[in-house]
Design a protein that fits this description.
The chain is α+β, with helices and mostly antiparallel strands. It has 3 helices and 3 strands.
């Protein structure tokens, strides 16, 4: 085999890593961990705001029901009056009394009564508002650093 050309070494299937790339997977992994952690914190903050809105809505429902029940019972059960009208001032007073007497919920101190009236005389309408502070000071939540303003309204009819 004197006439054959010399054999070249076969190229390596897995070339050796360049020394400057050592540890790049660790940086990528750490970056993804930070992104996932920030996403979880943002979702947790949004969940807190949603749960506080549900609490505020439940309180507005309670206050509207109390205000609708504040009608004069004697007048309601008398046969002489075919319809009973709610008084807007009485609805407002009943809603304010319900807000001030609730010691079981410490967050009620932050709630403001935006509106309490009887628009048609047969239903009590209560609108509450509150600013919910966010639990973490993240740059992703910077536009809401003062808190998120939420409102809830409820209407209860006299039946």
């Amino acid at each position: 085999m004197a006439g054959e050309a010399p054999r070249r070494a076969a190229p390596a299937r897995f070339p050796r890593a360049v020394a400057g790339d050592d540890g790049s997977v660790s940086v990528l992994t750490l970056g993804w961990i930070v992104v996932v952690a920030v996403a979880l914190l943002v979702v947790a903050a949004a969940t807190q705001v949603h749960l506080d809105r549900l609490r505020l809505l439940a309180l507005a429902d309670e206050l509207a029901l109390d205000a609708a029940d504040s009608i004069d019972g004697d007048l309601y059960y008398s046969a002489s009056s075919p319809s009973v009208r709610l008084d807007a001032a009485r609805v407002r007073d009943q809603a304010l009394a319900g807000l001030s007497a609730d010691a079981a919920r410490p967050w009620v101190e932050d709630v403001t009564l935006i509106e309490a009236d009887a628009p048609d005389g047969e239903s009590a309408r209560v609108v509450l508002g509150r600013v919910v502070p966010l639990p973490w000071n993240l740059d992703a939540l910077a536009p809401w650093s003062d808190g998120v303003a939420i409102t809830a309204s409820a209407t209860a009819r006299v039946s």
